[in-house]
Amino acid sequence: MRRRAAEYRRPVRRRFSYWIWALFGLFSIAGLVLLVVHHNQHEDRVEQPVLERNTGLDQVAHESLNFTEEILSARSFSRQLAEQMTLAKAYVIIAKEHNNLHLAWELSSNIRNCQLLLSKAAMRGEPVTLEEAEPIIKSLSYLIFRAEDAHYDIATTVMTMKSHIQALEERANAATVQSTVFGQLAAEALPKSLHCLNVKLTADWLRKPSLQELADEKRNSPRLMDNNLYHFCIFSDNVLATSVVVNSTVSNADHPKQLVFHIVTNGINYGTMQAWFLSNDFKGSTIEVQNVEEFSWFNASYAPIVKQLLSADSQAYYIGGYQDNVAPKLRSPKYQSLLNHLRFYIPEIYPQLEKVVFLDDDVVVQKDLTPLFSLDLHGNVNGAVETCLEAFHRYYKYLNFSNTIISSKFDPQACGWAFGMNVFDLIAWKKADVTARYHYWQEQNADGTLWRVGTLPPGLLTFYGLTEPLDRRWHVLGLGYDLNIDNRLIESAAVVHFNGFMKPWLKLAIERYRPLWERYVNRSHPYLQDCVTS
């Protein structure tokens, strides 16, 4: 049977076929294999329930064909069809280049028939038969012979193929950059409903003196400094996101009345935050809201980061238009926000506290976090989940090891860790003078040569040798960019983190994860209802 099918393969110019295969074969076969692997994985997920309902099926049918092996087998019709299809695709481009549109159309039609046959074979889990392959092999062989018989120049053809590949690569790169820029712009934009909520809350704060009086009354609560309670700090300008963090934390706490939340925001959103948290009850927990602009000590003479962010170069870098040589994600306004850098000044903000849990505003809490306060950090300052399961989360990916200041002090293979859910021992912090270490590294990076932007690179330097690894289940990351996080890992997580552009309050959020965040949004609040409907 195999010999009969081989009769329909016309002789081809080996040298020409070699060049075409070298340029296109690898890409096409790899793509086809990936498609088949995806199909097999899908079959693995869905086949078992089907067979449970059809117990009478034959055992052979139950053990579905491994189509990945089939497509790679040198003796299979599937492999022969794939190879001919690859060669035919190359000739489609060549025929179009030489204005032979009829031949290009015939080749494309047969390619579609070949793809359809391979797809059907993969879906049914059975190999391609001789009867199915014979007409397509015969037709493709004839068309390929006609294409070769046109005496296309090999060197010209190879150059044509290379130019097409280069053009496709340039288009793909441009599309990637454009997609990143659009994603960045979407992530920076404030949804209309959230802007509406901010306006309503700010109006309440300004026209209701009772709210301001209540805020003054709660400002001196002894609970804010009681180390027998559990203290959490959140630095954010997003009222709805902060509300979700607080609500999810108290909803999963065994004793929510023992929780104290310390929120710091900017001057623009201070009234918004106060109005929201004073008007809503979060299961009896204590909530403090402060304005970063009232921290008189946090100035350019004390904090190098303030001086750097106020510099003309920094303003031009962040506020100026997008530049081709700068990655869009490195131009995010969050890097210019002082709130983003307050995590290095927690003992200065709360001098009487001994231990705190720091939470980013894009996390959702799913378990009781109070056990974090009894963890033994073994004298370390920072308790964090390490992220070096993949190679790109090691120190050398974040820092410039070509600079001797870095290479002489740090191991490039040292394991990175995550901000977003961290336990800080503030007594150990003061003992190690961590803030001074942070200032030193910020001053060393005044010219931006040690790292580009962000808080994680200086955090890796500042807390080097002072970080205690936590169980991975305390903090699961990636819900803002990774579509394939294992459901079991998400379910077991104490905290899930929507780090990335696809924040859960944006339209571009990953739909699979959005319900994890939305379940803690108080949709019954009249302001939220009005803002959503309007």
UniProtKB/TrEMBL annotation:
A cellular-component GO term for this protein: Golgi membrane
SUPFAM superfamilies on file: Nucleotide-diphospho-sugar transferases
Transmembrane annotation, as ranges: 16-37
Source organism superkingdom: Eukaryota
Record localization: Golgi apparatus membrane
The protein's enzyme class: transferase
Family of the protein in this entry: Belongs to the glycosyltransferase 8 family.
Any one GO molecular-function label of the UniProt entry: polygalacturonate 4-alpha-galacturonosyltransferase activity
Protein name, UniProt field: Hexosyltransferase
Pathways per UniProt: Glycan metabolism; pectin biosynthesis
Keywords for this protein: Cell wall biogenesis/degradation, Glycoprotein, Glycosyltransferase, Golgi apparatus, Membrane, Signal-anchor, Transferase, Transmembrane, Transmembrane helix
GO terms under biological process: cell wall organization
Topological type in the membrane: Single-pass type II membrane protein
Classification via InterPro entries: GAUT, Glyco_trans_8, Nucleotide-diphossugar_trans
EC number(s) from the headed UniProt entry: 2.4.1.-
